[in-house]
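So, is this right?
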Amino acid sequence: MHTSEGLYFAFGATVCWAISVFPFTKAGRLMTVAGMNLVRLVLGTMLVFIAAIIVENGAALQIFDSGYLAAWGWLGLSGIMALGIGDYYGLRMYAILGPRFGSVLSTLSPAAALLFGYILLGESINYMGMAGMAITLAGVMGISLGRVERANIPNHGQGSVPMGILFGIVSALCNGSGLAFSKKAFTVQALSGVAIQPLTASFIRFFVATVIVILFLLIFRKLGEKIERIRRQPAHVLGLAATGTIFGPLIGVGLALFAIQTISVAVAQTIFALVPVVALVISHFVFKQRVTPRALAGIAIALLGVSILIWRNVIAITLGM
């Protein structure tokens, strides 16, 4: 797989995650975030396992061999950080701030991805690439987090706006580090001579995260209560949860793991940071929300930043840097 294909996969993951935000947000408000997270993890584990068996010719059935021990460690840690902790707080953030405003805070993930990519993988990025990241983040943050935009966030009874922002920061940091842990798993497995496929890797992440969350609920005697509340949900609410799971954990996460095999985690996370831009477009064309001049300017700046990031090496050579 070439770098250009990795970029396509990263953009595809971004679109899928932006789509998944809307059903997840609505379902989380109707069935509680903890219940939504449990449904998402269990359903995601099953769907990803089935997809891995079909698409990767049964490779998922071989992961219990001792040759995959390192992958279980790194991918398990990735799953706990990103899917268990990061996505839980991400869902809480969306319940408070909504899809358009909440997705803005995902732009903090590239910083965490860059830090952990440097520590774990020895990845680096030139000054032009860092400039592209900064421009992208500035554009995306400008779309939705101005004073007027924050004042227009409706109160859904899920918590305060500052609390939603805090949850978003925690989620972004966990997801950025989780992606670096996943790439570390691919690197370690490749060096061992026993490679692991992306969907199989995604299954390990989901399986470990699901087991940890269930154990956590058992320890605090909350599992029975959550299952009973989920069982009482109307079919359309569970349908929203299933739709979000298909676009987010199944397709989106799978494409993201394909992407990081050929591009750095910092570059990938910066592209993923365009989720608010895509969410804004969806809000405008599907939900008829007005796009302000400020938002249009933010989109233009974000796209400029991503363009600089992608072509950073060419630009640096051209400028003699």
